[in-house]
């Protein structure tokens, strides 16, 4: 597509078969109410979401309704009728709306269909026949095998939840401080700056990691900034002490967190992660040491809880700093480098790690 960068972004219509997703997440993942945030973040990396609709009988999802309304999702109510099927009514309404959008809103390039129901496979085929890209979203345990192959891309909600950022810790209670002694240097401002720097660093690395995984071309600084703003429209690098986004990127490059290369346009560099980064190698070494110590005591070390053990050794550890979407991805990268070995135990439902 020609035009400005915003015009070249995919324009996405998101339609959610909410009952299918909510019940699948509750029964398959123990997530209730359904957390829409990971879906929103994943789509923000792929383009502009110009329509958000969720279909359900909302009298059954009271808490969910309030959370979705805050996320700017339009709620399409399909009330249960005597002698009728609420599920079929929602499916039909969602399919009709998708076809209507495809014909009447030519600027919509992509449909994100949130469901695991194979009944939507013909709709996916029809949308692709109309030259629309289709992204499916579903919970692995409740997704039909027929649906993912029909889509251009399929996002399992399980993985999106795994890759989602951890919620920020609750602020410590405010305590009254004695009046400062005249001439005493106050370290509070400097100490408060560290968490803010770490927060903006993780926003950039998490977004860059998501864009890089798509593998659809170099990640330019302008594209990275647009993706960050789609996830958080209030983002402003000035809040973190930088006069521009380029200055923020140069700061992160000086910290060896990212690497900047000459881009296709002047002033719009390509942003990547450093190759053979010593800090990353050091993080793998710490992981190997922790696994070695725990395995001597308990044998194979379960992945669950291992990140907390690593943080006891290195409190500022985050796999997202090195471009990994989840701690499991970081552990698999360590295995690929021969740092550890790991195997999945079906009985316990967890990965177990041992020294290489």
Automatic annotation (TrEMBL):
PROSITE patterns: HTH_OST. Pfam families: NYN, OST-HTH. This is NYN domain-containing protein. Signal peptide: none annotated. It comes from the Bacteria. Residues 196-275, 279-356 form the HTH OST-type domain. It comes from Actinomycetospora atypica.
